[in-house]
Amino acid sequence: MRIVVVGGGVVGVTTAYELNRRGHQVTVLERHSIAGNETSKGNAAQRSYGVVYPWADPKMVLKAVPWLLKQDGPLKWRMPPSVEAVRFMMSTLRYAWAPGLFGLNRRAMLRLGIHSRERFEALESELDLTFDGDHQGLLHLASTPEALDGYRQTQALLAELGIASRLLTPEQVRAAEPGMVGNGPLYGALSYDTDGTGDCHQFSQALASECEARGVSFRYQVEAQSLVANDHAVEAINITTEDGDGELIEADAFVISAGCWSDHLVRPLGLALPIYPVKGYSLTVPLSNPDHAPVSTVHDDNYKVVSTRLGNRLRATGFVELADFNRDIPEARLATIRKSVNSRFPGCANLEAAETWTGFRPMTPDGPAIIGRGPRDNLFLNTGHGTFGWTLSAGSADLIAQLIDGEAPSVCLDAFRPGRFSE
């Protein structure tokens, strides 16, 4: 079958790999000059299978205003807010207040996380990819006794689903992360023992190269303009090339994995995708003192900043900001990230010399990604993964491939169904 995948980020590339592995003839359309160069480029570098949770969290609603007012708070809103940002937040509140929805969606996302971990392990055993990848776990630090109490509830849910985790004392935390010599408050941690790390940008490019060697065609620096469809199927896709020329590409099936840019392709076919670009920031820097750096991934709940070891580098990531597609990088955001790293891993790197990045996580108002068949028989959606695109990419790619081949998906996709926002 000839299949076009729109989007060359980590979700699109893993989808192309799974489809090619099943014998399909795949073409990937990507507007950048290389794979994994948008949201996949500078993310938190954590494959947090046991951490995944819906954005529409009732507890977050109660914390939102204090976070907005706090200088170092993790939630920011560019003022004055746009109509799109207000609409997205109001929709999020509606989903957060829906009785029982958060728990159902969280379990669905965790089950997808389990499947994704299995697919990553299989993929890494099949291919020799270099991306500073590992599976040494993730620590959620507890800066208050209340945070530790919350982790006890989380651990009960993880145990219910068979996800390995442990509650650690401060002494056990420092034994697991001996480089954590800072004086930040610490009452313990929740250890997600099977979670992983890895440079998503490097992974996307390495997997894209492997796909090309296996016959996948990558068309870079092309813009997907519109889908050409009848009442039952998509017949072709209109693209604009780097030279500005128009081109029509026909195929038997189409997969939309274009993140924040997915909606404009499917909306004319009658399906609105309320995906919003939630902005985040990161610092990436070579380690100057590896012994004072994280062993794996450490989430500092005091600042809501994640510090991840990538070989001889540190990646530190933070903030959830509603600023539409504004790419400015305010110094105040970077200062908070540096403050968090220095409070836990002082002296590990020269943070002032770090490479800075900002990107847009394709977030749905309720939280789960959009995975499934679209408004035409041969149109499929694998998009809107929010902060968990790197984590869930291998699993969701496998599920889309199963759907295209007419198989029952390994994970129930009710929570991810594309049409749920209009129901």
Written description of the protein model:
The protein is an alpha/beta fold and 423 residues long. 32% of the residues lie in helices and 26% in strands. It has helices spanning 10-21, 58-69, 83-96, 101-126, 145-160, 170-176, 200-213, 263-266, 331-344, 389-404, and strands at 2-6, 25-30, 46-47, 75-77, 138-142, 165-168, 188-192, 196-197, 217-220, 223-229, 234-240, 246-250, 253-256, 276-286, 297-300, 305-310, 313-322, 355-363, 370-373, 379-383. Strands 4, 5, 6, 7, 14, 15, 16, 17 and 18 form a nine-stranded mixed sheet that branches. The protein has a six-stranded mixed sheet with strand order 9-2-1-13-20-19, covered by helices on one side. Strand 1, helix 1 and strand 2 (25-30) form a beta-alpha-beta unit. Helix 1 (10-21) packs parallel to helix 10. The protein is globular, with a radius of gyration of 21 Å. The two termini are 32 Å apart. The mean pLDDT is 96.
Q: What would you say about this model in short?
A:
The protein is of the alpha/beta class.
